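Reproducibility note. Readers wishing to regenerate the assembly model reported in the main text can use the exact inputs given here. Chain order matters: entities are listed in the order in which they were concatenated for prediction.
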Amino acid sequence: MNAAETADRRAGSSERALAPRSLLEVDQLQVSFSVGKQLLPGRTQRVRAVDGVTFGLAPSRTLGLVGESGSGKTTTARSVVGVLPPTKGTIRLDGKDLYARGPGPDKAMRRRIQMVFQDPYASLDPRQRIRNIIGEPLRLHEPRRSDEERRLRLVELLELVGLDPTIAERHPHELSGGQRQRVGIARALAARPDLIVCDEPVSSLDVSIQAQVLNLLKRLQAEIRLSYLFIAHDLAVVHHIADEIAVMYLGRLVEVGPVDDVFAHPGHPYTLALMSMRPMPDRKKEHSRERIVLHGEIPSPLRIPTGCRFHTRCWLWQRLAKPEICRAEDPTLSPIGVAHSAACHFADHLVGQQGLGATARETSAHDDD
Amino acid sequence: MAVHGEAIAEHERGPLLTISELRVDLQSGARTVHAVRGLSYDIHPGEMLGMVGESGSGKSMSALAIMGLLPPGGQRSVSGSISFRGRDLLGLNPAAMRRLRGREIAMVFQDPLSSLNPVRTVGSQIAEVLRRQLSMRNTAARRRAIELMQLVGIPDAASRYRSYPHQFSGGMRQRVMIAIAIACEPKLLIADEPTTALDVSVQAQIIELFERLRRELQMAVLLISHDLGLIGQIADRVLIVYAGRVVESGTPDVIFTQSNHPYTRGLLASIPRIDGPRRNELPQINGAPPDLAAEIRGCPFAPRCPLVEGRCVEDPPTTWRAPGHSAACWATS
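Running the prediction on these inputs yields the following structure tokens for the assembly.
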């Protein structure tokens, strides 16, 4: 839509790690909540759901955010879309602080960040026709347009997401899951956003429909200047769609880097465990690789372990005979490659561990074709 | 007596459960929904059978038919047969079915929170099954419930006996559901998407648990899932279900490397992989599964099939069989 996008996309795969110019910059984000007996002052406790998260996202790129439930990824997403003010830290879009003027971004800024939800059934008003569901952001963000212009834009949006324009007169319950998710995407696109936060957009869809929606998201990114912050628990989906990946654990970023690097040489034992636990259909590969099953569950943010937050579930810590440093010192996110960082005292011990060998793309370059 | 003994031995060697030509039609307002359209398969003692299909493929509905939990009376019609250890389950009266359910066949559902009673402790819900189904006394039931909680990997079982479901995480609740299901050591455990709502780490733990329980208790498990990776990893045999019928079955190796059905192949190609090169575009199956109310004349997959030919639209495909592999497709038979 804009001449600059072509230049951005030309920035080539070798340099994309250097993340040219950020569209979104999240800097030392911290989000706390009060929990406990709110009526008794002194009994309340602060929980840091997100505790010092920093990352950037360039135009026309996708950042995959992964982690178990309780890792803080959804909280991060809610702050990024402008509905949850940070306790500390900043979120900037094109250099402008989203929360500079109080509790949330102004309308112009909100327009630029849209969201696609996990459950397209729950996120569409069942009493509205599709025409109204997509029409609402059109009226809100482009109030000066005539009815005829809006109608044309509606048809354009439906066609863009691969829906027949006759669907406009229907209600959500008359559509299939895949069609509903396309409506959710069209509604997000209606505002002409620069960034779409996708919260598990395919995990409630059937397998044969997942590929259709993932292909649609990739095609839209190539056609319109769009960045995605893509939250998913399925690493295979993130591997497919993202350029960079950020792994969260208990409110912290434990690893961040270009997808191919992270999958080939994970620098954090948590990342490696997440990858190894993902079942693969190929039995031969399945049996030849080591499966690391993480035991227990992510600890409560009220009882954050000392030192490295992950040490209580860390297989590497066990294997190294429980070195004291992991219990005593909180590791910082440190570079282990080009634009690739991990927060582990023993990241170098993982070098010999193979990731999943996904080092090359089927096509040589990162062209959006 | 001797004849009787031999008869038992005979069906112990054969399948534990045989479903043939099962059809389930449900009345939904003016529409008749064909939830299951002639499903046939069997499960052997101790076998882990994986069933893969999309929503509306009839996989959950066929499980409910085995459990005798289909919506009641006049709203449905069921035909075909479900034979469990020589008995036809469709002909059992409700009292006999209740005795069988829980004791010989048990089921675990996707959403453990809505299956547990929120105002009763988890321990008492496990103990209740033992008291009712096995007529255990209170103290014995309590002791056994704690053992079961330990067996399914709930730490601190004795003290967590008195916890309520909301105090448990999703993974722990699913363990409680599994403890209830295996309380009477059933011959067959049906698990319908048991790990879908759970994190990968918890999913891996639950899968380890299923593998262990099957070994230790010699149960057959019917594992229903849309996750091909999961099924490929732990099933002995895989059924691919589409529009209420089995379209292909075989060992995971056969299904994942030599599939003979375009639907299976399409599904396998369309899943993003972490173990291969990244692709710009995923090969996708276009369209959507058939409407449940639609009458299907030929092959149900024909409208979405890349290999479709004339007779696919006209006649339902016959099932092609080889040892350890079968597929219902005109084009590849």
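We highlight two features of this model. The domain at 2-104+184-328 of chain B is CATH 3.40.50.300 (Rossmann fold). Residues 1-11 of chain B have pLDDT under 50 and may be disordered.
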